[in-house]
Design a protein that fits this description.
It is a single chain. By secondary structure, the chain is of the alpha+beta class. It has two domains: 35 residues, no CATH class; 135 residues, Nucleoside Triphosphate Pyrophosphohydrolase. 20% of the residues lie in helices and 46% in strands. The strands form three sheets. The chain has a four-stranded mixed β-sheet, with helices on both faces. Strand 5 and strand 6 form a beta hairpin.
């Protein structure tokens, strides 16, 4: 079995302020085929843990599911020249209204590698100082922030019809067995 694949052509189908869609022509051995790919600038997420060992979450409206969801704070790398840590600091301030003195890289993952090139970088933030939130956009302005104990968060997420993958990865990366009994 040959592992030789290469993209030989790209056609832009859509470009929005958040993502693009490309049709890529791929060559493999003697075969050529097309795949549609959602292109993304990348994103960051923050597992914010305060001095009481509570986890900061944001509940905001998500259009694709037409409902509010509890999530760890997150956002797109949409500021030119901004690195992932700087974006995480900006998102923590926007969404939770906090600044942190201790930052730890938890990891990076591909959100859906079968159809998107989005790469998510997750940080843990500690040593938090509350400031004022700086929400951007109608979803963040209408959002709710809450600090959860591990037990309260588990109970809250247990009642959700589904949980976003970034929250699952962030909580699982720190607590390992957080979702074992959901």
């Amino acid at each position: 079995m040959s592992e030789t694949f290469r993209v030989v052509g790209t056609k832009r189908l859509l470009q929005s302020h958040v993502f693009g869609v490309e049709q890529r022509t791929v060559e493999h051995d003697d075969t050529t085929f097309e795949r549609d790919v959602v292109t993304h600038l990348g994103a960051v997420a923050i597992l914010a843990i305060n001095e009481l060992d509570e986890i900061g979450m944001i509940r905001q409206y998500r259009t694709p599911f037409d409902r509010f969801c509890w999530e760890v704070p997150a956002g797109t790398l949409d500021v030119p020249g901004e690195d992932a840590l700087s974006a995480a600091k900006r998102e923590l301030l926007e969404e939770l209204g906090c600044e942190a003195t201790q930052w730890t890289l938890l990891g990076r993952f591909m959100t859906s590698p079968g159809w998107s090139n989005q790469l998510m970088t997750i940080f843990q933030a500690r040593g938090l100082t509350a400031t004022s939130r700086q929400p951007a956009g109608p979803e963040e302005v209408s959002s709710t922030v809450r600090w959860f104990s591990r037990e309260d968060l588990r109970e809250t997420l247990r009642r959700e019809p589904a949980i976003d993958n970034t929250t699952v990865v962030a909580l699982g990366g720190v607590y390992g067995t957080f979702f074992d009994d959901l």
